[in-house]
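Structure in, sequence out. Go:
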């Protein structure tokens, strides 16, 4: 397994959790929208800024669609969350398949942001791939996690060994 301490931030794939706040909440008439613009909540915006600052590439982990590129077109509103199993989130095996099919397992370092359920989904998807999985703000309550992410951006330090 690659050692995260021997990598540069540019070697990392950053995975950002989607978010419950979506464009259609404020603009119900909005049609299909790129994922980068579909999620509108403050946590998503801060995590996106982190990903754009420190990642060589970044993806969004959608509880409905799985690992999606920022330009992936989301057809319309949905309400699926890893925090609510009854909402029907994507299965772990499908995430593993996506990681293989999209060649995400080629990244030496995968930085995952977000809450516990999203971190668990990333860890399960990349299990056995050899990628060093990093959760720089794990264990912090949401408000402190967002603050730590914002401070990392401001300092220019990603919050994991580089």
């Amino acid at each position: 397994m690659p050692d995260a301490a021997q990598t540069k931030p540019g070697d990392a794939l950053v995975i950002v959790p989607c978010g419950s706040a979506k464009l259609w909440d404020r603009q119900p008439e909005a049609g299909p929208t790129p994922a980068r613009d579909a999620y509108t909540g403050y946590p998503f915006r801060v995590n996106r800024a982190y990903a754009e600052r420190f990642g060589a590439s970044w993806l969004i982990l959608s509880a409905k669609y799985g690992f999606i590129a920022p330009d992936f077109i989301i057809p319309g509103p949905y309400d699926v969350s890893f925090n609510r199993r009854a909402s029907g989130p994507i299965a772990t095996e499908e995430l593993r398949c996506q990681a293989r099919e999209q060649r995400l397992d080629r990244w030496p370092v995968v930085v995952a942001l977000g809450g516990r359920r999203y971190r668990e989904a990333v860890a399960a998807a990349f299990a056995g791939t050899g990628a060093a999985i990093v959760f720089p703000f794990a264990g912090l309550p949401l408000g402190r996690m967002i603050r730590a992410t914002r401070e990392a951006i401001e300092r220019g330090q990603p919050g994991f060994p580089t």
